[in-house]
């Protein structure tokens, strides 16, 4: 298998496992066995091992020396901490983004949000939500800040998906917030954009 095929298998395993976790098909505390996953997805264990490392970095699983890979339990304290850190950092990132975002980047964000508005699959909506925020994080032109915020967003993704699966209006609220952010960005109104992020 060449490098391109190996990368494709790696992405397949990572995306399949991420979606299974986000939709609740694989629940918190579940042990992920490399050989079983490789057999189910008809790949070798190498891309499985690479995918598990990615998911550990993103906060979806924990790699334990004794139990191997285990789907992470995200407690209230974890979510609260993530939210508070994001509340400190995101206003600065959004202010920078609104001042520097290009028309092309803004069009990309609009196109992503149009898809999110009609998306009903929780896992796919979480992915679109992530893509939407990534546009603004990138537009802030601060690579280190982007890395921190991306890691925080990855860590919160499982909680967001769970809240969607079990009802509530989080999706509608987030879509509304995204449109308000787009309006502020079009007007280059950094103060209003920061207010939107703190809603």
How would you describe this structure to a colleague?
74% of the residues lie in helices and 5% in strands. With 199 residues, it is mostly helical. A hairpin with a 3-residue loop joins β2 and β3. α4 runs antiparallel to α9. The N terminus is likely disordered.
Distance between the termini: 49 Å
Uncertain spans: 1-5
Number of strands: 3
User: What's the order of the H and E elements?
Assistant: HEHHEEHHHHHH
Number of helices: 9
Helix content: over 70%
Strand order of the largest sheet: 1-3-2
Q: What is the rounded Rg?
A: 18 Å
**Class per helix and strand makeup:** mainly alpha
Mean pLDDT, rounded to whole units?
A: 87
Q: Please state the overall shape, judged from the principal axes of the Cα atoms.
A: elongated
Query: The biggest beta sheet, please?
Result: 3 strands, antiparallel
- Measured by DSSP, the beta-strand proportion falls in 5-15%
Key terms for this structure?
elongated; 199 residues; 74% helix; 3-stranded antiparallel β-sheet; mainly alpha; 5% strand
Secondary structure layout:
Elements: H1 3-22, E1 31-32, H2 34-41, H3 45-57, E2 61-64, E3 68-71, H4 76-100, H5 103-118, H6 122-139, H7 143-165, H8 170-186, H9 190-197
Antiparallel strand pairs: 1-3, 2-3
Short description:
The chain has 199 residues and is mostly helical.
